[in-house]
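Page 37, continued from 36.
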């Protein structure tokens, strides 16, 4: 499916609100973005240009709904600060470094010892970590470290605790995957990961993550949940709920259809119990579940058969999207938060933007 086709589908899924026709000129697009931005945003002209350029490059219509969706996520993630200051970042970083070192099987004492070495600016890496105030500062320290220390990139590259970047907090892995299938349209001075620290790069890849995919949603709420949990997570969570109903087995609707290691997970085990009724073999089931991060999954025989079976059991149509049940975890999260909390918080900002 082309990005234009995806964008056309998105325009038809304006959620609870009537779909607003996309603008027909760059002047109208910039004007609509300007009205959507919250009061007090610094460098409004810069934000307008980068938002407009992202919509144009991705061929996503500049409708009121689409613009407000991007504005709402950006406001939630960074309050429109390109490189925001994070309280207690040094302490957060040390905790994450220790966690990652332990997971990688590296002695923590060795890691701390190596970080006491002098960095190119004359301070030790440890001192710079303690003094870091923003994610870019912290990531730059690790770039210096892995590029300077012998075998640093081989042994310590995984210690960088910054994996989401920029004002839209885009995951580095997503941006790199997207750039492989859709070449980055702007001049690139460094890597894709570096570009995420810029406003232009973060807005472009953040807009792609939020809007540049087709999903069976009738509310932007589910796109907001997907921005937090991964594309198609809300669709997948609805599928898991249907599997639970059809099989009678409890199943966490977290949107992850297969584990990261590719082995059989709880969803596949529950679906396998339905195999005789679904008339699908194990290979067909596993192959379909592997498509869980693409539009193709909802076209699969497995998806159709599970919903048909679950709806016969329920005696009514079942939703094709539910918010995934996920407790948010990460080095910067200090409260008990969930994807449900995140999605509704962004939806509130979305509603306020529409009022503007």
């Amino acid at each position: 499916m082309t990005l234009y086709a995806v964008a056309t589908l998105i325009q038809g899924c304006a959620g609870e609100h009537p779909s607003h026709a996309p603008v027909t000129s760059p002047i109208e697009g910039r004007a609509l973005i300007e009205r959507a931005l919250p009061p007090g945003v610094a460098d409004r002209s810069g934000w307008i240009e980068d938002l407009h350029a992202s919509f144009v490059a991705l061929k996503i219509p500049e409708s009121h709904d689409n613009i407000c969706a991007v504005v709402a996520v950006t406001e939630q993630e960074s309050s429109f600060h390109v490189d925001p200051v994070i309280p207690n970042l040094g302490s957060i970083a040390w905790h994450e470094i220790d966690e990652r070192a332990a997971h990688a099987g590296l002695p923590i004492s060795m890691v701390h010892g190596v970080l006491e070495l002098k960095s190119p600016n004359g301070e030790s890496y440890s001192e710079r970590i303690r003094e870091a105030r923003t994610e870019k500062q912290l990531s730059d320290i690790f770039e210096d470290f892995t590029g300077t220390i012998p075998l640093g990139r081989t042994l310590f590259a995984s210690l960088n605790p910054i994996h989401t970047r920029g004002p839209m907090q885009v995951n580095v892995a997503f941006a790199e995957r997207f750039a492989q299938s859709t070449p980055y349209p702007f001049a690139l001075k460094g890597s894709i990961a570096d570009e995420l620290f810029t406003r232009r790069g973060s807005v472009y890849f953040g807009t792609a993550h939020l809007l540049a995919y087709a999903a069976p949603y009738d509310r932007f709420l589910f796109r907001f949940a997907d921005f937090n949990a991964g594309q198609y997570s809300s669709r997948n969570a609805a599928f898991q709920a249907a599997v639970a109903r059809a099989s009678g087995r409890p199943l966490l609707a977290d949107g992850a259809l297969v584990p990261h290691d590719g082995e059989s997970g709880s969803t596949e085990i529950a679906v396998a119990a339905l195999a005789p009724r679904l008339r699908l073999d194990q290979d067909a089931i596993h192959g379909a579940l592997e498509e869980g991060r693409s539009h193709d999954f909802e076209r699969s025989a497995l998806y159709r058969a599970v919903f048909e079976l679950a709806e016969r059991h329920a005696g009514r149509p079942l939703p094709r999207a539910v918010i995934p049940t996920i407790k948010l975890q990460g080095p910067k999260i200090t409260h008990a938060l969930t994807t449900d909390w995140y999605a509704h918080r962004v939806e509130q900002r979305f509603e306020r933007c529409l009022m503007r």
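Residues 339-355 form the longest helix (17 residues). Flag for discussion at group meeting. The chain has three domains: 3-82+168-214, 89-165, 230-314.
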